[in-house]
Amino acid sequence: MRKWIFLCAIAVAFASCDNNKFTIRGNVADAEGQVLYLETLATDGKAILDSVKLDKKGAFEFKQAAPQYPEFYQLRLNESVVHFAIDSTETLSFSAKAADFANGYELSGSDECVKMRIVADESAKLKRRINDLSQAISTQSDQVETLRAQAVADLEAYKKKMLDLVLENPASATAYYIVFQEINGDKIFTPYDLSDRRLIAAVATGFDVRYPDSPRSKQLKDMTLAAIAAQRAAQQKVPEIEAQAASFLEVELYDLRGRKQTLSQAVNANRLVLLDFTSYQTDYSPAYNMKLAELYKKYNSKGLEIFQISIDTDEQAWKVAADNLPWICVRDPQSLYSHNVSMYNVTSLPTCFVIDRNEGILKRIEKADEIERAVQSRL
């Protein structure tokens, strides 16, 4: 009798442990011999939780401790990943083919995961659209304004869809997932944009109310407050910048080494600055930069600096192309829908502006052959 009671107690203990876990199981077809990983996506980085070498059937099952707050995970097969969220002891069912793992999968068992799939699909569509429009610049450089307007419209349509999802439940895993969507490594929603910050603040408030002790609540709150503080600090510096040169608008972007470069600093340190908007992925770029290199060699010692802004979407391609250039090279991650492009009314590439330290913008130039004449007349 005692033995039976002891065995029952063990069974109850095991059942209790299993009840505190979430499960994801399923099948990956045509993946024999490949390793499937289950990874956690914590705020401080990702880590492998479990893995399995798939056999001919491709069946798998992972069990992990249920999180205290909504958490994010991914299934990874080679370089392809599928994201999902867990907030209790769900059991998810997954199926896919190895060849189309990240796009052709089926995932059921959680309404939140279904919504996250919608977000992932919409984000992928936007990324393809923006990349297509950016690529079009290389063959239609005279249509930059039209292409940028199309990109802005596509971005706004996407943001409207995402806002509708966030407003359904700002404290949901889907809402958090929306905040951190990216295009080519750049966040779609940034707390430094006032309209974006409203959405991010709504999610931060939702998480703070429902999950006040969650690391993700702190992350959202810190991100929002840091942006507000940076904006206030920038506003305090505006009079100083305007006093330095009233006839040009400030640009703050990061160079190849991750250092912040500001146009006002370049103007104050040199007699003349050539502010240049360009794209390294265009056909004209190699020959154009060779002309600038000749100009820089000839006039840099006389007080000329070049502040070159790339609107390339491919950050790595930009880094490779700009690595050996001797002037200030920065990249605007907003590309076609850049605030800086709008601010300077850039409608074709390349476009540059000659800026004098004392007089501000002297000339707008859209033809490369006119640059040296404009520079030479001031140095």
Explain what you see.
Mean pLDDT is 87; it is low at 3-16 and 238-246. It is elongated and about 80 Å long. The protein is of the alpha+beta class. Helix 5 (194-210) packs antiparallel against helix 6. It has 11 helices and 17 strands. The strands form 4 sheets. Strands 12-11-15-14-13-16-17 form a 7-stranded mixed beta sheet. It has a 4-stranded mixed beta sheet with strand order 4-1-7-8. It has helices at residues 2-19, 111-136, 144-168, 173-179, 194-210, 215-244, 263-269, 285-299, 315-322, 339-343, 371-376; strands at 21-29, 35-42, 45-53, 59-65, 71-77, 80-86, 91-97, 106-108, 182-183, 186-187, 252-255, 260-262, 272-278, 304-310, 328-331, 351-356, 360-365. 31% of the residues are buried.
Summarize the SSE layout with pairings.
Blueprint: H1 2-19, E1 21-29, E2 35-42, E3 45-53, E4 59-65, E5 71-77, E6 80-86, E7 91-97, E8 106-108, H2 111-136, H3 144-168, H4 173-179, E9 182-183, E10 186-187, H5 194-210, H6 215-244, E11 252-255, E12 260-262, H7 263-269, E13 272-278, H8 285-299, E14 304-310, H9 315-322, E15 328-331, H10 339-343, E16 351-356, E17 360-365, H11 371-376
Parallel strand pairs: 1-7, 13-14, 14-15
Antiparallel strand pairs: 1-4, 2-3, 2-5, 5-6, 7-8, 9-10, 11-12, 11-15, 13-16, 16-17
Q: Structural class of the helix and strand makeup?
A: alpha+beta
The proportion of residues in beta strands is: 25-35%
Cα radius of gyration in angstroms:
26 Å
Order of helices and strands: HEEEEEEEEHHHEEHHEEHEHEHEHEEH
Mean pLDDT: 87
Largest sheet strand order:
12-11-15-14-13-16-17
The biggest beta sheet is recorded as: 7 strands, mixed
